[in-house]
Amino acid sequence: MTPEQLALRDAVRSLLAKHSDIRAAIETPHGYDKDVWARLCDIGVLPIPERYGGSGAGLAETRLALEELGRTLTPSPLLASTIAAKALLSLDDEQSGRLLRRIADGAIATLAWPWDGAEISAVNDHLDGVQRYVLDGDLAEILLVSDGVHLYEVDPDQPGVSRDHTPTMDQTRRLATLHLTNAAATRLGPWSPRIRDVALACLSAEQVGAAARALELTVEYTKTRVQFGKPIGSFQALKHRMADMHVLVETARSAALAVTDEVSAAVAKVYCSEAFFKVAAEMVQLHGGIAITWEHDAHLYLKRAHGSGQLFGSPAVHLERLRAKI
Amino acid sequence: MDLSLDAQTVEFQAEVRSWLAAHVRPLSSMNTAAGFEEHRSWERLLASERLSVVSWPSSYGGREASLLHWLVFEEEYHASGAPGRVSQNGIFLLAPTLFAHGTDEQRARILPSMARGDEVWAQAWSEPEAGSDLASLRSTAVWCDGGWLLRGQKTWSSRAAFADRAFGLFRTGPGERHRGLTYLLFDLRSEGVTVRPIDQLDGEPGFAEIFLDDVFVPDRDVVGEVGDGWRVAMSTAGNERGLTLRSPGRFTAAASRLVELYRKNPDPALRDRVVDAWIGAQAYRLHTFGALASPLSGPAASVTKVFWSELDVALHETALDLLGEVAPGWRDGWLFSLSGPIYAGTNEIQRNVIAERLLGLPR
Q: What residues does the Acyl-CoA dehydrogenase/oxidase C-terminal domain cover (chain A) (predicted)?
């Protein structure tokens, strides 16, 4: 990490420590804390070049911020807006630049692309179809849609567009179902499959942050919980399970950091999803009864692990893709 | 993280690849007398191209290669199907200790002949009553005129059946357990040494017991300070557990072979395990390449040890399940993989190290 990256990470971490209250955030109508989002934008975590009014941060910096948001499970439009911004940057022209400027100013953006096999059909720049699990899909002011061939901008406030908030097991992630019925669209340019790899890289960074924090919380708990007159973390049966969690977190971090192409992105998606799920499941077991309560955060990590494993395609889907590649 | 290679590295990679393609040929098992000598000749051939110890200083036979070049060398080496390294104990375990704690005289005397395979080293750590609990070892070194007399018994000494020399820890006192130990080098053909080979599960003597009965060792073969042996040995224990002993090239090569095997023997029920093992090898590779930026050492090496040893078992078990029988080409690797979670500190010990030293859990 460069000194600048370290400073950015520390800034995000201390912001979240002071201001992130996920229990309060998920009770708000939009499911996230607008003040925290504004402060994140001020720190400059979106990967938008200065020529479009952004901070000039790169994807590496955004991934650090996503890792921090993953640690605290803070609901945030950063993931959706980052993926939308990277899709626009793949075009990098006047039209996309106009949208990038709005994102840099804090407008929430999202990209709906058919990662779950849904079919969006385009006829004469009008779109039809249903896309499920669109990140911040009901909140986004800027709605990008791909049919797998082109990238379109769709005005979300037209009659041909309906968006339904879709509550899932993971309350810390805002998802919506997007219905397009002869919706007028502006064709921005060709769709780059590379955007999927960017999305997987971003998601895996978030997963690694969450998994690392789940382990830290477990270690802290077992150091303080006393049974048989000793902290339970001194018992080898528990130590070895936490050691295995550590091995998973560190190797997942390496896989997440190493994404450069289609294969490494799929590896990261599979590996980080499975690692996070195992770590979160162990978090529950090692906490014992307290983790079975609503009050304790362990279930939030477990549900995020499940949800993020399914987002953008389950590990099984990406394994199938990898099988074709290797 | 960018894993693309610069021009100089690509050139080095090409040189290694073409040299190996021209020279690699199958050898007999290194755990037979004849095969051992074939492997020694192979080490000499490697050394003649300065390829036996690429990361070492040139004065000792190396090329001063960076960690990146070493990783690239290892990938090419394993992908080519080149023979196992009979010099492994010396170049990956003793040599780092000499670089850190030896004298110039020791390095000049020992390293060049190690690099050429002229002297092959065995390790002599474990004893019948000191395995995972190495600090309970009992073999002694008693001071005498001009040196030391070794007495006791070592066991599970890899390569000792045919090797020339060995390195190990001996109790010189005062103090108990970790205190009062000294790191010593000795000649396996000295008077008073009896080597009794032990057959491994493949039927060949890959390790041996060593009985020591007043074996003389001159003062110049003490590594580090007398009484400081535990620190000397442990400061480089990470080399055995970490990536030097088991470079990712070994596993990516095995994973590629596994994928090939699947193509020839497709069994849909095993597809996920094949891909999982392949992903594991890739993850390990990425993890070690990550070490280029921040070196893995000390307790972090325990993380890699647990990972690679259990990955190796998974790779081989998946191959066996695909084949439905123990087939040539995988059987020996499988049997060898079973020792991975045991040697260099059992994985249970590694998990203690991770829990106590990395996670800070109480003892």
A: 202-323
Helix, strand, coil content of chain B in percent (nearest 5): 50, 15, 35
Two tokens, residue B58: 């040139």
Among residues B174, B205, B235, the one where a domain terminates is: B235
* Residue at which a domain ends, from B33, B62, B86: B86
Contact A230 B362 (CB under 8 A): yes
**The two three-digit tokens of residue B134, written as one number:** 């190495």
Average pLDDT value for residue range A6-13 = 97
Residue A102 bridge partners (DSSP): none
Give the integer Cα–Cα distance in Å for A174 and A81.
13
A233-to-A216, A302, B123, B299, B302 alpha-carbon distances in Å? 12, 21, 35, 18, 19
> Do the chains contact at B359 and A255, CB–CB below 8 Å?
no
Same domain, B254 and B199: no
Please tell me the pTM assigned to this model.
0.82
Token pair for residue B112? 């060049």
Q: How many domains, chain B? A: 3
CATH 3.40.50.2020 matches A194-325: no
Distance CA B213, CA B289 (A): 46
Query: Taking Cα atoms as reference points, which of B87, B13, B79 lies closest to residue B44?
Result: B87
B56 — pLDDT class (breaks 50, 70, 90): very high
pLDDT the model gives residue A250? 94
B240: pLDDT confidence band, cut at 50, 70 and 90? low
β-pair partners for B186: B166
The residue of chain A with its CA nearest to that of B347 is A240
The span from the CA of A133 to the CA of A117, in Å, is 12
Residue-level pLDDT at B241: 62
Q: Are B255 and B331 contained in the same domain?
A: yes
| Pairing of the two strands B193-198 and B140-144 | unpaired
- Locate B347 and state its tokens: 């994985």
DSSP A111: E
Domain range for residue B167?
A: 121-235
Q: What are residue A280's phi and psi, to 5 degrees?
A: -65, -40
Q: What is the pLDDT of residues A91-131, one digit of tens each?
A: 989 999 999 999 999 999 999 998 877 789 999 999 999 99
B151 CA: distance to closest CA in chain A (Å)? 35
Q: Catalytic residues of B, which ones?
A: 240
pLDDT tens digit string along B183-196? 999 999 999 999 99
Check CB contact of A223 with chain B, cutoff 8 Å.
Answer: yes
At residue B296, the 3 state secondary structure works out as coil
In a domain, B103, yes or no: no
Question: Using CB atoms, which residue from A234, A257, A271 is nearest to B1?
Answer: A257
Domain co-membership, B220 together with B252: no
Domain range list for chain A? 3-190, 194-325
Looking at the structure, do residues B215 and B245 belong to the same domain, yes or no?
A: no
The pLDDT value recorded for residue B327 is 64
Q: Confidence band (pLDDT; 50, 70, 90) for B8? A: very high
Q: In terms of C-beta density within 10 A (0-12 exposed, 13-18 middle, 19 or more buried), how is residue A128 classed?
A: middle
Examine residue B113 and state whether it is found in any structural domain, yes or no: no
Residue recorded with tokens 């850190």: B100
Cβ–Cβ below 8 Å for B303 and A250: yes
**Which pLDDT tens digit goes with each residue over A162-171?**
999 998 889 9
> Does the distance separating the beta carbons of A251 and B307 come in below 8 Å?
yes
In a domain, B106, yes or no: no
What is the pLDDT averaged over residues A298-309? 94
Same domain for B208 and B252, yes or no, is no
Residue B1 has pLDDT above 50, yes or no: no
Cα A83 to Cα A47, A119, A158: the distances in Å are 9, 20, 23
Is the residue at B102 inside a domain?
A: no
Which CATH architecture fits A3-190?
A: Beta Barrel (2.40)
